[in-house]
Specification:
The chain is α/β, with parallel strands linked by helices. The chain has helices at 2-44, 57-63, 68-89, 108-132, 147-160, 176-192, 203-208, 255-267; strands spanning 49-53, 93-100, 135-139, 167-174, 220-223, 242-245. Helices cover 53% and strands 12% of the residues. It starts with a helix and ends in an 8-residue tail after the last helix.
């Protein structure tokens, strides 16, 4: 009788174990599925590409009784902070407006100081990029820059071309209208030489002829210091980007401020012309 009971209990326990394991597997699968959906939903709310107009350096410095150039130095330091924060949030591409084609109209003393700062930044950026595994690219009319800066840009791009972390793009001597003008000239030359016909020109061809060829269009454009305009920045590429303007000047724009911008972006509905 006792042996019979032992056999019965063994069968029951074996069945219970089997049921439990099956339920456990189902629960694990459901948890994994739910977690995956949560991650997908979270990633949907993170912009793949963020473009920033770094504004307010000079006013930030003046408010503190310091020369404008001091603000530019602090602003340059903040770039690395935001690069790390962006990558940690899941942002894959970051493009910053460092020096525009119109910035040459500033006082010579300020322009000279900016060029000196940019020259030094290009050299320092190699170490920063290596530390953070960043691939760095510079867009704009490089021919308008000094030979020294052009050499530093080429060395920086070459040294970081195989890094697979954040894709960091610096707009330097850049202007949206200038970029479009250079693009039109490239395509017009192809038409003139008979390599293509006018009807062969497509949006893809235009995109491939821009400085940003190979980069996805920005999802979110941020401008600091609360100037409500885009100032000739990425005129083609920002067609469907969400805009975010903040009163915070660039030197004070930290990880928390970036998070605010990303959170607001996540609350917007991007329809791309659809209902």
């Amino acid at each position: 009788m006792r042996q019979c009971c032992d056999v019965i209990w063994a069968i029951i326990n074996k069945s219970r174990k089997k049921v439990f394991e099956t339920e456990g597997e189902d629960i694990a699968a459901l948890c994994a599925k739910y977690t995956g959906r949560m991650m997908e939903e979270k990633n949907k709310n993170i912009p793949e590409h963020v473009a920033i107009i770094l504004d307010g350096n000079g006013r930030w410095a003046k408010k503190r009784g310091m020369p404008r150039n001091y603000g530019h130095v602090q602003g340059a330091k903040n770039v690395e902070v935001i690069c790390r924060a962006a990558w940690d949030m899941g942002i894959k591409y970051l493009t910053v407006y460092a020096f525009s084609t119109e910035n040459w109209n500033r006082p010579k003393e300020e322009v000279d100081a900016l060029m000196k700062l940019l020259n030094q930044y290009m050299k320092n950026c190699q170490r920063t990029a290596k530390k953070n595994n960043m691939k760095v690219r510079v867009i704009g009319d490089k021919s308008g820059l000094s030979e020294a800066i052009q050499r530093d840009i080429a060395a920086l791009e070459k040294a970081t071309e195989d890094y697979d972390g954040l894709n960091f793009t610096i707009a330097l001597n850049y202007g949206g209208r200038d970029e479009l003008t250079r693009m039109v000239r490239k395509i017009a030359a192809l038409v003139k030489d008979g390599e293509i016909a006018p009807e062969d020109i497509t949006e893809n061809m235009i995109e491939e002829s821009l400085d940003t060829a190979g980069l996805p269009d920005p999802d979110l454009m941020i401008r600091t210091s609360y100037e409500l305009r885009i100032s000739n920045y990425l005129l083609w590429q920002l067609a469907y980007a969400e805009f975010y303007f903040t009163e915070v000047p660039w030197p004070d724009f930290d990880e928390k401020e970036l998070q605010k911008a990303v959170e607001e972006y996540g609350q917007r509905e991007r329809r791309f012309g659809k209902v």
